[in-house]
Amino acid sequence: MAIYADQLEAGLRVPTTRFLRDCLRYWEVRITQLTPNAIWVLVGFQLLCQHQEIAPTVNLFRRYYSIKNSGSEKGWFYFGNKGPKLVVDAPSLIKEWKRNFIFVSADDFP
């Protein structure tokens, strides 16, 4: 399976966390459909939860974010804020991220 190098730079790790897998299942998307910025938000949210000593869950995440279509191309997604920005300093634009990918075992994405 291919994942994007910029997703790794955004904090994606293999094997993935239960929280990330739960989010993918909930929205019925593949990891390759998420923009690097979506990964920044997921990872950042997870870290904020760990800092506050609470478990990150899809329901909690949904209170602050909603999934959005990315640009004019169908099939790519990011997470938009519903209220105050929780994850800050994520890059606003990452160019040509679809060109750089690596292959990993599909077993790492149950």
Can you tell me about this structure?
The chain has 110 residues and is α+β, with helices and mostly antiparallel strands. It contains four helices and four strands. Strand 2 and strand 3 (77-81) form a beta hairpin. The model has no long low-confidence stretch (mean pLDDT 83).
Sketch the major β-sheet. 2 strands, antiparallel
| Helical content (DSSP H or I, runs of 4+) | 25-40%
Please mark out the parts with pLDDT under 50 across 5 or more consecutive residues, or reply none.
none
Distance between the termini: 12 Å
Strand coverage percent: 5-15%
Structural category is alpha+beta
Average pLDDT, rounded to a whole number, is 83
Helix and strand pattern: EHHHHEEE
| Cα-atom radius of gyration | 13 Å
Instruction: Walk across the major sheet and give the strand order.
Output: 1-4
Chart the SSEs and their pairings:
Blueprint: E1 2-4, H1 5-9, H2 18-27, H3 36-51, H4 58-64, E2 65-69, E3 77-81, E4 101-103
Antiparallel strand pairs: 1-4, 2-3
Please give a quick description of this structure:
By secondary structure, this protein is α+β, with helices and mostly antiparallel strands.
Features of this protein?
two-stranded antiparallel ribbon, alpha+beta, single chain, 110 residues, 4 strands, 35% helix
